[in-house]
Amino acid sequence: MERHISLVGRDLKPASGVKSVKTVKVSFPPVSLQEDLRVVCPAFLDQSQPYIRLCRCRVAWYPIRTYRKGYAPMLYWGKTFKGGGWRHLCRHCVDVAAALAVILDVDPLLAKRVKNASPIPFEETRNLLLFLAVVHDLGKFSRSFQGSAGPELANLSGLKPLSDDRHHTLIGLDFWEIHGLSDMLGFGHEEALRPLVNAALCHHGFPGDPEESVRKNRRRFEGAEDDVKSFVRSAAAFFQPPTSIGSLRDESFRRLSWIAAGLFILADWIGSNENWFGPDTTWASIEACWQDALKTASQAVEGCRLAPPPAGAWTSFNELFDYLPQGAQPSPLQQAVMDLESQHGPEMLIFEDLTGGGKTEAALLAVHRAMRSGNAAGVFMGLPTMATANAMYGRLANSYRALFADPEASLILAHGARGLNQEYLDSFEPLEKPPGTTLRDDGGAVCAAWFADNRKKALLAPCGAGTIDQALLGVLSTRHQALRLLGLSRSVLVVDEVHAYDEYTGRLLRSLLTFQAALGGSAVLLSATLPLALRRSLVEAWWRGRHLAGAETEEPVCRETAFPLLTRGADGGVVESILSASRTLDVAVELTGDDSSMFEALAVASKAGACACWIRNTVADAVDARRRLVAEWGVPEENVLLFHARYTGRDRLNIEGEVLARFGKGSVKNDRAGNILIATQVVEQSLDLDFDLLLSDLAPMELMIQRAGRCHRHDRGISRPIGYRSPRLLVLSPEPVAEAAAGWYADLFPVGQWVYPRPALLWRTARLLAEKGALRLPAEARELVEGAYGNGGPDAPCVFDDVELKAQGEGDAERAMGEYASLRFEAGYDTDGGLWRQDVDALTRLGEPSRQVRLIRMEEGVLKLWAAENSPDMSRRACMRSEVRVSLSKFKEPLIPPGMEDSLETFMLSMPDKGRWCHCLVLTENESGLWSGKGKDGKGREVEVAYGCEGLEILHL
């Protein structure tokens, strides 16, 4: 189609007059206006700095607007590419809307979540979301953004560049609010729509507040306002979002906004992927490019493997768990899960059973049940530590495929040091591969590369294991937290060792359960020992989420004290089912206040060919115990393993592998005989270890039960040495006398008192263990746990009252901090929902501030990363494998050896991260083979840092 427009050329000098007037015939939309002008009016374009004004057209009226030379209307850049070229902004906006449309089409569960969260019919909701997706980048029409890509692209739009430090997402929100687009489009209820508008326009990870300055906003879009409004109107005309929402309440879309925020982020990431959406500078209309955008988006979503794989069609217990011995029968807990009625909506299950009772397999049965019923599309297993997450990943790698009908369903590992796990790195599947081919033929796990390149995407994978922190970040004001919530909402969240968290992290976990329930997801919580009060708080958090979702459900009541126990929470209420014991454990317990008894027991066990473990409460105590056991008690050094958290990534993984080889489920007599493990809490959770004899420092009762579960965990019969065929637990503890002194625990554990600061709880634990003389599990498990926390147990000495009150006060403060840090679901995706700041440090756990220390060896005048496989190895993986985390109070800054400043700086510049996010510490080897360097602690005092087979140690000089 051709239209006639009048062109008026003027010199930019104020005193100059009209130079020429031409009527030009150009195509419309005028995508090649510059070429047309060169043909019909070359002299006009040769003037210095002319500009063009579009005036009244012979066919229609067009807004008066100023343009630079060479401008074509609606010519704005949206994406640039490393290899060169750019993509039109309007086309990018359509790409994102197309990606969202495809995601909702291929993922029926996400579509169901959207439908259930919206107050209007699904088709109307879909149209509204697609419209908001296509206008998500309004801020990129601004002068500041268009001028940010250099002079080549700054001339496209004809807009005068503007320096502005406000992010384009917030600029877009400003434009929407100040120009009243809700009213312009006839939505009729701006307040109700605000959370969704915030979710769309602030799609870079956090909501924002609109700026009130009308003048500043108009300056940002000077010369572009009409184009923006025209684009918005055309998007509304194409997608036809519902405008009859005036009768809705202010809070109507708040629940949907959390899901929508995740969807907009996901669609934007898909639509920005240059593997599919590359350079394209053309633009005609939404109608003209919509079908092509849908086709490309379908290829992108398929390439990223975002469509959830269907549930596997296994028919028997052994078919799902083919790694179990042939003919293995389900435990009572597992059978109870299999006997549950079909799932009809969101559920929370709590499994309480002994360590080794098959809770993980029971959780996977519950996951498959939820998938079969259409209430879930996968699972994320949240573990307390990276070590336990690695162990769970290893277990899932051999079995997770049975959950899915697709043999190439992705299994992901999600924690900060996953780059150290070679099994995980070997599982990556490229974005593109020949059709009909598989990446691996060894039966190992696979993971689509798109999921693996960012931990924020990890929870979108159909199956995953990681630290619970990755899920908790979803309820903190962190960038892209909504993407984590989106992934969790379509999965079953499984939390292992749910009793193992402090008050702060526990409060975050309860907030996460509320979000999960409100968004329609399911959860399974696992524990060997769960106090009744904690179980009630978890169930109440879940119920609150269902209440916020508008579900009609009775307020939960938890009162059952039997053990083992299955608690099921659904919209119909809470059902507590008493289970038969799958495993009984009668562990003889002996308390001693003399540590020489502990060393003697270990030495005797080693000589007898037994294997034993002493779980100590601090790293310092563990290191000291190993030294003394070897030096003073004559146990061969090669028979004593030390395992704690203060090793570099490489060394810790190697030690963990050795621990599992010597004491794991698959270990045999020759692996175990005479070996001793001195460890900290890293072995008490989720690692499948089995010892003939167990020793432990005194800790709270639930941890003592957890640790006792590592004694005779597997049935080994007569293969255990004579004298060690019955489980026994030796506990280093002060005598729990009624007239205990105030320093009762601190005198024996001067460092450990800061790990477990509640002496009354510890005293009641010790008193119950002394009175019982055994841990009879599961028969007395509930009595022991509740008694230790003061519910029917012995009264602790009054001398502990002040310390106990202080500890309780600190616990209350931690809960309050967790409450303050958690986002509020009922506020929706808005700045009212929490403290949204880019620079807020999102803490999932409280503790002493710490930082990674990257160890660098000086060998023959050459610097080398500690874990480098060869001298030039400066890969990101080698950097991570060379790091150990240290508290800032103990080590705040390294000291560079004299004369090494320049060489160290050059060495750091060759690192992928330039050493910016860690301390780089140079170590030199001394005569004894120990590596050491120097630094300063938190008080500025000089310290020596030593590293060797016992890990990292800091000594004051």
Helices, strands, pairings?
Elements: E1 2-10, E2 18-27, H1 33-40, H2 42-46, E3 51-53, E4 66-68, E5 77-80, E6 86-88, H3 89-106, H4 108-117, H5 122-134, H6 143-146, H7 151-154, H8 168-178, H9 181-185, H10 190-201, H11 214-220, H12 225-239, H13 254-271, H14 286-304, H15 317-320, H16 332-338, E7 348-352, H17 359-372, E8 379-383, H18 386-397, E9 411-414, H19 422-425, E10 428-429, E11 447-448, H20 449-452, E12 463-467, H21 469-472, H22 481-489, E13 492-495, H23 503-518, E14 522-527, H24 532-548, E15 565-570, E16 573-578, E17 585-592, H25 595-607, E18 612-615, H26 619-631, E19 640-643, H27 649-663, H28 669-672, E20 676-679, E21 693-697, H29 701-708, E22 728-732, H30 759-772, E23 774-777, H31 781-788, H32 801-821, E24 850-859, E25 862-865, H33 876-881, E26 883-887, E27 893-895, H34 901-909, E28 919-925, E29 931-936, E30 942-948, E31 951-956
Helix pairs in contact: 3-5, 3-13, 3-14, 4-13, 5-12, 8-11, 10-13, 13-22, 16-17, 23-24, 23-32, 30-31
Description:
Strand 1 and strand 2 form a beta hairpin. The chain is α/β, with parallel strands linked by helices and 957 residues long. It is built from 34 helices and 31 strands. Helix 30 runs antiparallel to helix 31. Residues 1-72 and 434-442 have low confidence and may be disordered. The strands form 7 sheets. Strands 9-12-8-13-14-7-15-16 form an 8-stranded mixed sheet, sandwiched between helices. Strands 24, 25, 26, 27, 28, 29, 30 and 31 form an 8-stranded mixed sheet that branches. Strands 19-20-18-21-22-17-23 form a 7-stranded mixed sheet, sandwiched between helices.
